[in-house]
Amino acid sequence: MKIKKVLNNNVVIAQNDNEETILMGLGLGFGKKAGEVVEDKKIEKIFALKVTSEQQNFSELLSEIPSGIVELSILTLAKAKTKFDKTISDTVLVAFADHLNAAIIREKDNITIKNFLLWDIKRFFPEEFALCLETLQKVQEKLNISLPEDEAGFLAMHIVNGTLGSGHEYATELTKLMEEILTTLKYTLQVNFNEQDIYFQRFITHLKFFTERILSNTKSDESTDEDLFLLITRKYPRAYIGTKKVSEFLKQTRSYEVSQNEQIYMTVHLARILEKIQD
């Protein structure tokens, strides 16, 4: 690979055939110029973006973003990949860095944007949110600029978006749908969920995958065990009332038919939560 642009001593943009790549490594760009060959042994982190006619290239997109912000964004996303053990689209780097840079500019201009999904983001994506709070802390340490936690919420959604492989609107829709389901359950079952309870947290994890299937209209391909379905619904009648209400809600609002297998999983999760509340 050859260097296309040096962002700072540790970050360069390189060209490899039809692919532009952001490379990071200690001293990787020190004393280097465009056209020189990258020292492979110094490469520590790689973010690649295949350039298409619909996309601008990395150098254009990042030309107005300070290199320190790009480097901090790379470190955050690299940590997210390791910590969450998930594939995160490299294209998120540009959106993440651009948002972080814009947030800093807004703060300098005393402009604040309220994140109306902040509470839900904290509930549904606590690890991504915590990681982005660390990023804001580093901005404070390096630039002496204090960003509101609303921005950590926005940045967390970029990470969620990267794991879903869809647009930012998709991640927002996912969050809103999870909240709609929880609200339906809360009022149907007349309970206040303990969000620190391990069973509730496991249910939230299940709910994330469930809502992803709904938004992508992907059905469970597991065969249905009719006897098991009847056993679960009879054993946990109150929990099943909640599941049935959610199923009706999704059919009415999303035209999504909740399979019996999905109803079984949800009912079992709810039964555990309800048992814990009653204890």
UniProtKB/TrEMBL annotation:
Give yes or no: UniProt keyword Hydrolase. no
Query: Please, which domain of life does this record's source organism belong to?
Result: Bacteria
A single GO BP term for this record reads:
regulation of DNA-templated transcription
Q: Which SUPFAM superfamilies match?
A: PTS-regulatory domain, PRD (SSF63520), SacY-like RNA-binding domain (SSF50151)
Keyword Lyase listed? The answer is no
**Cited Pfam families:** CAT_RBD (PF03123), PRD (PF00874)
Any idea where the PRD domain is? 64-168, 169-279
Which key words tag this protein in UniProt? Repeat
| Recorded GO MF terms | RNA binding
Q: Which SMART domains match?
A: CAT_RBD
From the Swiss-Prot or TrEMBL record, give the protein name: Beta-glucoside operon transcriptional antiterminator
Q: Which organism is it from?
A: Lactococcus lactis
